[in-house]
Amino acid sequence: MSPSGLRVVVEADGGARGNPGPAGFGAVVRDADSSDVLAERSGALGVTTNNVAEYSGLIAGLEAAAEFGAAEVEVRMDSKLVVEQMSGRWQIKNAGLRPLAAKAAALVRRFEKVSYTWVPRERNKHADALANQAMDAAADKPTAAHKPEKVERAPRASWEPPATVPTRLLLVRHGATELTAQGRYSGRGDVSLSEAGLAQARATGARVAALGAPIAAVVTSPLTRCVRTGEAISAALAGNVPLAVEPDLVECDFGEWEGRTFAEVRTQWPDEMDAWLASTSVAPPGGESFRAVATRVRRAVATILKAYPEKTVVVVSHVSPLKLILRDALAAGDALLHRLYLDPAGLSIIDNWADGGVAVRSVNETGHL
Length: 369
Description:
Elements: E1 7-16, E2 21-31, E3 37-48, H1 50-67, E4 72-77, H2 80-86, H3 98-108, E5 113-118, H4 125-138, E6 167-173, H5 178-182, H6 195-210, E7 217-220, H7 224-236, E8 243-245, H8 262-268, H9 270-278, H10 290-307, E9 312-317, H11 319-329, E10 347-352, E11 358-365
Parallel strand pairs: 1-4, 4-5, 6-9, 7-8, 7-9
Antiparallel strand pairs: 1-2, 2-3, 6-10, 10-11
Helix pairs in contact: 1-3, 6-7, 10-11
């Protein structure tokens, strides 16, 4: 079931008897319009803290909502800490909670909209009952308390190779331009490849051809530096590989920072740069936020996966869109965006399965350059 535009409510809870102590979580997914229960999740966590259990409940609920193809999610929890931290109003000072918050944030990016509402415990009885049942299991003390007819548990991670064929995306950053060499912000400005950049594009074409897999298409950003890189790759491949332009793969709009060096921006817009580095929802002056870029890039990836199922596709884009694709594929936090370096004409490879499975096979290969 994956109805378009589905709106759901996630009720989540978790607890520990002893804090730390035997812990468990519970989560319920309801249709936002009918209040019908779509899924229940619960799990024992062994010995840990209340807060870890509460975040585990949130994660289980978001995972279940994603499996139903929800577009909008309202999270309801009686944990003030989780609600305020995930809403961005409270800092996450406990280092042990940060990985859980990062995992939850990665799941949030799969939806069009997510909101958080604090509710008193008496309005969160269903999830609380599931969490208590899981705590009983953690303490090895079964209870006759709430026993749902069917409790779905979060899917286990597995190293078992999938039996089906994935759609493979060969992600390529365009070759170098003069602005690349000068260390300048290069967003929507339509600059051309330098001679070095064209040579890099040809080398990447040879690398892609050496993989030996049939290429269904080369899909590029509309800007010249990507189109020329895509053309060079297409020319290196045997057969008539079509080249398609995808507008949503265009680079971030850097607004007033366009064409300026990193040092110039740091000097002239120090506060704005700090805010931009701290949050993907902040845009450069007159520009576009990474959150907005992520929305259209996810749309582009979904379009490609739908158009070329079980095929191999070359995707030529820019630093920001490619980092966002890799962030989502790795289920990583936003810090990755400012720590990951992608070279001009570097190659990354991601496999995507129809059931939502993802495998990142390589990041920023440059041996061909």
